[in-house]
Amino acid sequence: MTETHSTAVRGDSGPEMARLVASRVLDVPDFPKPGVMFKDLMPLFADGDVFREVIDGIVGYHGRDGFDIVVGIEARGFVIAAAIAYATGLGVVPVRKAGKLPRPAYSASYALEYGEATLEVHQDAFTAGHRVLVVDDVLATGGTAEATLDLVERAGGTVAGFTVLLELGFLAGRERLAGRPVHALLTV
After folding, report:
1. Which one, 9, 125, 164, 184, has least CB within 10 Å?
2. 153 belongs to the catalytic site
């Protein structure tokens, strides 16, 4: 494993935050399959001081009054969402893989490079006009993000923002979300 380094790091919260995130990302070659360079964010989550600074940075970017509830996308998005919810005193809503929610749910399917996936959110997750901050660890092709943002709106929420720790810019996920508020702490 090697750390993700770059002297010209960039992100929507500026180079200092981008450098901080980059300092805690490990490159894992050939995972989950040969030829893929996996960006492992677990070192960031494991470093309490850095994790706190990242969460504070996300809250600062959106403003404590910029959203009413936080949505985390399964699974690492749950970690980020819970921390933001705690820091702001707000609630958290999970967007789960199909079949994991116990009450009536909206579902959205989307294509993956190796098949199809389905995400769900409870139909009663939001009240009309709830301003929702959606968070996840990585923005790649944008399929997961697009499905989640659509689910939030179908369930009555208004997307106030979408934040990821790491954007894989070469996969053009941001373009797929054109017209949506996208915020990435680090773009590679």
Report:
1. 9
2. no
C-alpha dihedral over 72, 77, 83, 87, to 10 degrees? -50
Asked, as a colleague might, if the bond just before 160 is cis with ω within 30 of 0, I would say no
Predicted local confidence at residue 1, as pLDDT: 44
Beta bridge partners of 30: none
Count Cα neighbours of 123 within 13 Å in the Cβ-side half-sphere.
5
| Active-site residue flag, 10 | no
Catalytic residue (one of 76, 154, 176, 180):
76
Tens digits of residue pLDDT in 75-114? 999 999 999 999 999 999 999 999 999 999 999 999 876 7
Name the token pair of 44: 């960031």
Nearest partner of 119 among 96, 140, 100, judged by Cα:
96
Q: Collapsing DSSP states into helix, strand and coil, what is residue 98?
A: coil
Q: Residue 169, SS3?
A: helix
38 beta partners: 28
How many Cα atoms occupy the beta-carbon half-sphere of 52 within 13 Å? 3
Kindly state the tokens that stand for 27. 């490159």
Q: Considering 16, 52, 64, 113, which one is annotated as catalytic?
A: 113
